[in-house]
Amino acid sequence: MSSSNEVVSAVRKLNSDIHQDATIMAESMAESFGFKSRKGNEDEETTLFQQVGATIGPSLVHFLGTKSHSEDPILIQIAFQTYITRYLCWLSTAWIASGGKERLGAADQSNTTQTVTTAWSALSHILSKHLQFDDAQLCSAAASKIVAGLADILLVAGCDGTRLQLCDALKQKFSEKISLLAKSGMRINKLIINSIDRGLDVVVIKPATVFDSMCMDDGYDDGERDKNTANNRVLCPTDIGLLQRSKGPNGGVRILLKPKIALESVVDNLDD
To answer: Contact 259/203 with Cβ under 8 angstroms?
Structure first.
């Protein structure tokens, strides 16, 4: 059994690793490939731009396509952080990740009527057939998903490599780092399932949310702006947070670890 403190430590360590690895990968890929800036909006209507925008946010996609990255790949780094953060946040709570069958079984033990219990048992039997991934298979699938997502971000940023070339380069250089990130997400999944503290939930902040220092932190704070105004909106999430939800008359949500974000203003001083 684990505790909420262990989960907080694991999430904090994962956030640090994501930031560090995103920085290294962005700088390396910017050195290995050229970039061309897109000044118009024509490409933003493509399927790729729409797909990437649905994951990391349309504003970040816009800036990736219009800003220069050759000298300073900070936006690519932020986009890498965002994509990995959102994917691993999902992996940390997904039923399919390390414990799907255990969750189904635990739900089957709930205090319900015999009819409902029988129906749930039948549904659990069907669902369990789709939860046959072992940790190695799931880690490999997760790593492949991350590689593909990072390659798409590079294409949106105007990288002159093909998708296949970018995927190959990411795999050759960073397969170990990416696999370790996936394993960390799976470990957090297990810690949450086995925690003695119930109601734990990982969370990321959605793009375009108005900044609120009560429930989020700025991961790229330069200390020069008053963020608690209506004009300060979230560009994208950068770090996973951890909440604890409780039920009952005194129930509510307690923030154990604030999620971090990048504000839209982070792009103000970047070259076009």
So the answer is: yes
Q: What is the bridge-based pairing of β-strands 252-257 and 217-218? A: unpaired
CA 155 to chain centroid, in Å, comes to: 19
The alpha helices in 44-134, defined as continuous H runs, are 47-56, 58-66, 74-91, 100-108, 114-128
Pairing assessment for the beta strands 252-257 and 234-239 based on DSSP bridges:
unpaired
Provide the whole-model pTM.
Answer: 0.84
Q: HSE-up of 80 (CA within 13 Å, CB side)?
A: 27
* Assigned token pair, 183: 């394993």
For the chain, the farthest-separated pair of C-alpha atoms sits apart, in whole angstroms, at 65
CA distances from 83 to 22, 102, 148, 204, 240 (A): 10, 28, 11, 11, 11
Residues 38/65, Cβ–Cβ less than 8 Å: yes
Q: Write out pLDDT tens, residues 246-270.
A: 887 777 899 999 999 999 988 886 7
